[in-house]
Write a structure and sequence with these properties.
Helix content is 30%, strand content 24%. The chain is α/β, with parallel strands linked by helices. It folds into 2 domains: 253 residues, FAD/NAD(P)-binding domain, CATH 3.50.50; 90 residues, no CATH class. Strand 1, helix 1 and strand 2 form a beta-alpha-beta unit. The two termini are 24 Å apart. The relative contact order is 0.20.
Length: 403
């Protein structure tokens, strides 16, 4: 029975960052348990058709957090990354236009521009209507009926949930108001105005998939990573695995889904049962060998008749590669032809869902954890849809506080 000061569950971006921060501070009493045979979590890459493919979906390093970038450059030096200015587009029935939609309405024919402008002018956020409490109504209030119908509602339905009103609205405040003035200005000037989306500029490795940086981070703490070791129960200052091992620790850092534990000792029954109400989506990544006639890095596909919601155009950001890959929510994969034999990978846990009851559950869950030296961290430990750069930042901050 091994005992360490810090026991880290999961060798994804959160766990690896936390571990390497401990190492930097001279702390050697830590261990990472990882159920897979390799590190990286949702950011792993595989060699497919002679080039890397990111099996967890599209992951890129946003430039907006310099401290995060500098930290990761210590493992995969800056010269091994290519810098891109984001080119993402939306495939609508009438056109393929730039993202975000409201900044690129000028790319539509004139009659459609007028329809969109009229709809935005009537949007509740522009006309002073009270803020709705339900997801679907909120999207219409924020963006106008036409953007909601053509893009936001079907896209979110494909990506997250068939019943959109099971989602809360507490996470949507980061969406900027759609300014009628900025939209009109963009139509007149025929260029985008308004806020830039996330990943407006991003890094991607020149010779590797995105998984390479996490692989190197794992190598930096290699003796401290135990692979093929799946945590099953959390006990008092201990974790039991499905293989029957027990690991003792002063502090437990969990970056894996709370739903993966069959037992958490000392947790009130009502709180433990509430974990089942934390919803998430499973997503399949499917490779297609053909190149696409586009300069875009990725494409959003809101059409409900098409199974996948996003296309990652590999040959436009991964050098000397070909083909593209599709992201599809697991429930929609039955729409594909069963004869399709291309490479595919199913991520059982892909996106945490921001359901209406989630904030209260997580508040209680994380509070119980802290009282018992169990710390939830990252996309799954905090059950929040964080991009990898945010996960790294949060792991760096937690390590600074604790070590």
């Amino acid at each position: 029975m091994e005992k360490v000061k810090y026991l880290i569950l999961g060798a994804g971006p959160a766990g690896l960052t936390f571990a390497n921060m401990l190492k930097r501070k001279g702390e050697e009493s830590f261990l990472i348990l990882e159920k897979e045979k390799e590190a990286g979590g949702l950011c792993r890459s595989a060699e497919v058709d002679g080039s890397p493919l990111d099996i967890g979906g599209g992951h890129f390093l946003d430039v907006r957090r310099p401290k995060v970038c500098e930290f990761l450059f210590d493992f995969l030096p800056k010269e091994e990354w290519a810098l891109f200015r984001r080119d993402s587009r939306i495939c609508l029935q009438s056109a393929v236009v730039g993202h975000p939609l409201e900044a690129n309405i000028w790319q539509f024919p004139l009659e459609e521009q007028v329809e969109y402008l009229s709809s935005i002018a009537k949007a509740g956020c522009n006309s002073g209507e009270p803020v709705p409490e339900r997801f679907v109504e909120w999207i219409v209030w924020k963006l106008g009926q036409k953007i909601a119908d053509d893009y936001m509602l079907p896209y979110n339905q494909k990506m997250f949930a068939d019943e959109l009103d099971t989602l809360g609205i507490y996470w949507l405040d980061k969406l900027p108001d759609v300014s009628f003035e900025d939209t009109l200005r963009s139509c007149l000037a025929r260029k985008p105005f308004g806020s830039q989306p996330g990943h407006a500029s991003f890094y991607y490795p020149k010779k590797y998939g995105y998984g390479e940086v996490w692989k190197r981070m794992a190598e930096a703490v290699a003796p401290k990573v135990v692979y093929g070791c799946e945590a099953e129960e959390i006990c008092t200052k201990a974790v039991k695995t499905k293989g029957g091992q027990t690991f003792m620790a002063d502090k437990i850092i969990t970056t894996i889904p709370w739903a993966s534990f069959s037992k958490i000792e000392g947790m009130p029954k009502e709180l433990f049962l509430s974990i089942k109400d934390l919803k998430s989506s499973a997503v399949e990544i499917r490779y297609v060998p053909e190149n696409l006639d586009t300069q875009a890095h990725w494409l959003y596909v809101p059409d409900l008749k098409i199974p996948y919601h996003r296309i990652l155009v590999r040959h436009n950001f991964c050098r000397e590669s070909r083909g593209h890959w599709l992201e599809t929510r697991a429930e929609r994969t039955t729409m594909f032809s069963p004869e399709d034999e291309n490479y595919r990978y199913l991520n059982a846990y892909a996106y945490p869902l921001n359901t209406m009851g989630k904030p209260k559950i997580m508040e209680k869950l994380l509070a119980f954890g802290r009282e018992n030296q169990i710390y939830g961290l990252g996309r799954w430990g905090e059950h929040s849809h964080y991009n990898s750069d945010v996960v790294v930042e949060r792991a760096m901050e937690l390590a600074e506080k604790m070590a």
